[in-house]
Design a protein that fits this description.
Elements: E1 3-7, H1 11-23, E2 27-31, H2 34-43, E3 48-52, H3 60-70, E4 76-80, H4 85-93, E5 98-101, H5 106-119, E6 129-131, E7 134-137, E8 142-145, E9 148-149, H6 154-165, E10 170-172, H7 173-181, H8 190-203, E11 209-212, E12 216-219
Parallel strand pairs: 1-2, 1-3, 3-4, 4-5
Antiparallel strand pairs: 6-7, 7-8, 8-9, 10-12, 11-12
Bound molecules: calcium ion.
Length: 222
């Protein structure tokens, strides 16, 4: 069970976050202040820190910088109500791995957390994935339907792999762009849509990629 330290001084938000993360199998330590969070992380480094920027005792971004200097590989996701670009830049500059702006949907939050935790576990990144009639082998860089190889362009392959790794779950456009194209946030999503169309065309009925309007895509598990 991955352990997440949630740093949030707002009772209602903290309780909601704790409840939904626990219901998705995470072990949650909820801290209401920067001091509590510092102590909790020092006592037992978690798998991820979800950090509210507005804390009563310390600026969340200062805490982020401090945690980053002490724990180089600790995934930190900053939660902020300030979505101005400067805050975003400062958030990433402070050493955060990702950020999410309030109000956010649980689906998107969970997707971001999963992405971070997967980054921390590169061990099975090379394992082949089988979904229905499709087999994707990242190590060999091959993909087949009913054992027949399918010819994909590199980005198409990476996109398919990203969808397969989170099969059945929605993946946000932002994350697909970041994972497959190394672009962040502001990029046009037209490229993404065109690659999804290419995959649908090449795989016909062997895969179903559902569009989740306003959010992203989901590979339907047959
Ligand atoms: Ca707050």
């Amino acid at each position: 069970m991955p352990r997440i330290v949630v740093v949030e001084d707002d009772d209602a938000i903290g309780a909601t976050l704790t409840r939904s993360l626990e219901s998705h199998g995470y072990v949650v330590s909820w801290c209401r202040t920067g001091a509590e969070a510092t102590a909790a992380v020092a006592e037992a480094p978690p798998d991820l820190v979800l950090l509210d920027v507005g804390l009563p005792d310390i600026d969340g971004l200062d805490l982020c910088r401090r945690l980053r200097t002490q724990h180089r590989d600790l995934p930190i996701v900053v939660v902020t109500a300030r979505d101005a670009e400067i805050d975003v830049v400062v958030g990433l500059d402070a050493g955060a791995n990702d950020y999410i702006t309030k109000p956010f949907s649980t689906t998107i939050l969970l997707a971001r957390i999963r992405a971070q935790l997967r980054g921390a576990e590169p061990a099975d990144a090379g394992a082949a994935i089988e979904i229905g009639r499709v087999r994707v082998d990242p190590a060999a860089w091959t993909v087949s339907v009913d054992m027949q190889p399918i010819d994909l362009r590199p980005r198409e392959f990476q996109l398919l792999l990203a969808l397969c790794r989170d099969a059945g779950r929605v993946i946000t456009r932002e994350r697909l762009l970041a994972d497959v194209w190394d672009l962040h946030w502001e990029s046009s999503t037209k490229t993404l849509d065109m690659h999804v169309m290419a995959l649908r065309r090449k795989f016909e009925d062997a895969i179903e990629i559902a569009t989740v309007r306003g959010v992203g895509y989901r590979l339907v598990v047959p």
